[in-house]
Specification:
It is a single chain. This protein is mainly alpha-helical and about 350 residues long. The protein has a domain at about 25-90 and about 190-270. Helices cover about 55% and strands about 5% of the residues. The protein has helices spanning about 1-20, 25-50, 55-60, 65-85, 90-110, 145-150, 205-230, 235-270, 275, 300-305, 320-330, 335-340; strands spanning about 125-130, 135, 175, 180-185, 190, 195-200, 315. A three-stranded mixed β-sheet has the order 2-1-7, with helices on one face. Strands 3-4 form a two-stranded antiparallel ribbon. Strands 5-6 form a two-stranded antiparallel ribbon. Helix 1 packs across helix 2, helix 4 (about 65-85) runs antiparallel to helix 7 and helix 7 packs antiparallel against helix 8. The longest helix is centred in the last third of the chain and has 34 residues, at about 235-270. The protein is elongated, with a radius of gyration of 25 Å. The two termini are about 45 Å apart. The relative contact order is 0.11.
């Protein structure tokens, strides 16, 4: 099996290198991965229409049913490409915007004493938290180093929050991705299937892609089951192929459901995969109890900020103060449930 996979992979790489000689090896691998994913969708769906005569008859009688199914397939593939081509939110981009705003503001203040904006246009960097609750829009901007240090407790060494790879100051919840070779704001994980990181800027897109993929897998699996349950005489090899595909769909569906539930939990509690898995290794999370979610603002606000986050606004979260942590660690009350408190 490993030999067959290796031969197929080498054949794919040679074909892509001939068709796209100007692309690097990493880009060719990513392109091959995307082509493979699209082909898998088309094979699983195409097999249904090739073998299932009842589905063809139903399409003639009720075309809206097949139209909805194919629309979901199209929307899932579109969402995949949107998510894979989106930026997770890199620290270097926000740092550049802050420093540009600072320089331009200083120059304009000396020349005309009028406010200036950065070259990034509508990009706004806001800082949330008790230690530094302010926005760069409409106020005197500061340098990136000063802005980051204000998000940490007093006395924090700048060396401890500087990335040893990028040599940039990391705000809380940021992490360096070795695959992308960049620091990502609110780093969740690096998705191999997408070929990019999942961070603050594309976590919502990633969640919607998982949701659509789960719905498509569930619908496709139900069509496979309907085909196998039909009392129609047909060739045995068709049943064998459909059973193999159904087993693969069942495994994929189980994985997608678990992944969807896991990321829904992360959204509701305002956590990331990296923070949950590596909590004891992150310096500013080590001493916080497991049941306390330091960055959670309540279920309702967590959902609103997750779903309605604008790519032109980067919300950098300061570390919570001891008073805030004490407030988050107190037991739940009926009022907390009514106000959707979580954390």
């Amino acid at each position: 099996m490993a030999t067959v996979v290796g031969v197929c992979r080498s054949f794919r790489d040679r074909a892509l290198s001939r068709c796209f000689p100007c692309l690097s090896d990493a880009r060719r691998s990513l392109l091959g991965l995307k082509v493979t994913l699209v082909m898998l969708h088309l094979i699983f769906v195409g097999t249904l229409f090739l073998f299932d005569d009842d589905l063809i008859d139903k399409t003639r009688k009720e075309p809206w049913y097949t139209a909805l199914y194919l629309s979901l397939l199209f929307a899932t593939l579109v969402q995949y490409f949107i998510t894979s081509s989106s930026s997770p939110g890199y620290v270097v981009d926000v740092m550049r915007a802050v420093n540009e705003t600072n320089v331009i503001y200083q120059k304009s203040s000396v020349a005309s004493k009028q406010p200036a904006s950065s070259k990034n246009g509508s990009l706004i960097v806001s800082v949330e938290g008790s230690q530094s609750g302010r926005s760069l829009q409409g106020s005197i901007p500061s340098s990136w180093t000063k802005l980051v240090m204000e998000m940490y407790p007093p006395g924090t060494s700048i060396r401890s929050c500087t990335c040893s790879y990028c040599n940039v100051e990391q705000p809380p919840r940021a992490k360096h991705c070795h695959d992308c070779d960049k620091c990502v704001i609110q780093f969740d994980h690096h998705c191999v299937w997408l070929g990019t990181c999942v961070g603050r800027d594309n976590h919502c897109k990633f969640w919607w892609y998982i949701c659509e993929e789960t719905a498509l897998c569930l619908w496709t699996g139900s069509l496979y089951i309907s085909f196998l349950k039909a009392n129609i005489s047909r060739a045995w090899w068709k049943d064998a192929i459909m059973i193999l595909f159904l087993v693969a769909l069942s495994i994929s569906l189980l994985f997608l459901l678990l992944l969807l539930l896991f990321h829904s939990y992360l959204v509701l509690t305002n956590q990331t995969t990296y923070e949950l898995v590596r909590r004891r290794r992150i310096p500013y999370l080590r001493r916080i109890p497991e049941r306390v979610f330091p960055f959670s603002k309540g279920v309702c606000r967590n959902l609103r900020e997750f779903c309605c986050a604008r790519s032109s606004i980067y919300s950098l979260e300061s570390l919570p103060s001891p008073q805030e942590l004490e407030e988050k660690s107190r037991p739940y009350t009926c009022l907390d449930v009514l106000t959707c408190r979580c954390g």
